Amino acid sequence: MAKLYVNPNVKKGHINPELQGHFSEHLGRCIYEGIFVGENSDIPNVNGMRTDVVEALKEIRVPVLRWPGGCFADEYHWRDGIGPKEKRKKMINTHWGGVVEDNSFGTHEFMELCSQLGCKTYINGNVGSGTVQEMSEWVEYLTFNGVSPMADLRAQNGRKEPWTVDYFGVGNENWGCGGNMRPEYYGDLYRRYQTYVRNYGRPVSKIACGANAEDYHWTSKVLETTFDHGNGFMNGLSLHYYTLPTGNWGKKGSSLEYDEKDWYRTMKQTLKMEELIKRHGAIMDSYDPGKRIGMIIDEWGTWYDVEPGTNPGFLYQQSTMRDALVAGINLNLFNKNCDRVKMANIAQMVNVLQAVILTEGERMLKTPTWHTFNLYKFHQDGELVESSVETRETGLEEGFKVPDLTESVSRAKDGKLHITLTNLSLEDTADIEGIFADCSIKNVRGTILTGDMRAHNTFDAPDQVHTRDFDAEITADNKVAFKLPPCSVLHLEAELA
Ligand code: AHR
């Protein structure tokens, strides 16, 4: 029997709702068709945003949305996306799929989307091919309240009031698609560009471009170059890490056709996230022991070979129970490290990579990853509490064994405990006994997502993978006993007496 220890009275940090954030790029069918269909579409919409998708996203309480990229951000010139739609520039999205970008979704539309979702805004600026002036004027256009050229332009375009920009990214992947820079050079550019990301009212949190996966050199050098400035100079430093089952960009593997070995390899690759958080976090600690700068994991998720027959530049892939587990592992890890990790954004929200929603014309489905987010949403804004679980090694190949269980536990404002667990094993049910220190459990209810390792939803069968109620027993000695089936993600809600 595996013991799950929980001490609800030992608080370990605040779980920012933003740990369950999302990312939407002008890439494939993420924005166009996936979210934005235009006011004249036959697909039901409000101001161009498709109603089915917005409703499904509201259900999982999307806390923050990052836009317009990704690599697209460092090619994006925001003035192309404002003003009368018929006058907006048409161009080729050279980075993603070579399709026409008509700029019908721009600044106003993004802000409208966030307002419909009720989420915070995270805009990623252009350092790679944009000027300081362009970035500075975008911030003025978005947030200045008063007489100014950009505030006037905004009013001419139908919006008198400024918007709130919660987060502003100064470049994206500037070590790669965002300009192929060296960290020292980017660090200097960051110092310069961020100067002009002005606070015209509510402060904008500034995010510097951080490392790709285990590029610790980038983290060290960017911090070394930038860190002699005071508070507010940098609020976050990003980190990107994708789960590739093979670890090989040349042949990543299929989203649907995989075997048990691929399963455990994928889990192993996902669990690397823990080491990345610890090691990048240790470098951040050496500059910022007070943890003032948040680690912002603004791109994470699975990345497979694209679905056969689809545009390779659209990054369209299916999502199965494997992805549900990958999401569960990562979200538990973000919770466990909430003292440093302040935001994380799954890549990407709709129709791209590990999407929570897939669309096909007027049809929409919720992926198994959506269900994981739906189970984990109760952690948002809670307090992480002390917890641990006993694990066993599971897997088929030496070098690719993983612990069978991951978990995290939070206490919500109403005092309830929320426990999320993943069982990575494909064979073994975990017999678990929850032991709760210094409290007594009044009642417990559970919801579980489980199924065959390749189970997924399709447009013809959109509800193949869904959650169901789950029983856990409160024992006479105040423990909680339950059996967690293989390949599962669980949420338990416990009320204390
Ligand atoms: O999410 C897809 C791409 O992955 C993003 O545009 C880029 O930032 C990363 O390389």
Topology:
Blueprint: E1 2-14, E2 21-23, E3 45-46, E4 49-50, H1 51-59, E5 64-67, E6 91-93, E7 99-101, H2 107-117, E8 120-125, H3 132-143, H4 149-156, E9 167-170, H5 183-195, E10 205-212, H6 216-226, E11 236-243, H7 260-287, E12 294-302, H8 321-336, E13 341-347, E14 357-360, E15 363-366, H9 368-376, E16 383-389, E17 393-394, E18 402-403, E19 405-411, E20 417-423, E21 430-436, E22 441-450, E23 468-470, E24 473-474, E25 479-484, E26 488-496
Helix pairs in contact: 3-4, 5-6, 6-7, 7-8, 8-9
The structure holds alpha-L-arabinofuranose.
Alpha-L-arabinofuranose binds next to loops.
**Approximate shape:** globular
Bound molecules: alpha-L-arabinofuranose
Amount of beta strand: 25-35%
The number of strands is 26
Span between N and C termini?
26 Å
Number of helices: 9
Major sheet details? 10 strands, mixed
Helix content range of the residues, please?
Answer: 10-25%
Mean pLDDT: 97
Structural class by helix and strand composition: alpha/beta
Radius of gyration: 22 Å
Q: Which consecutive residue ranges, at least 5 long each, have pLDDT under 50?
A: none
- Spatially, the strands of the biggest sheet line up as 23-22-26-20-19-16-1-21-25-24
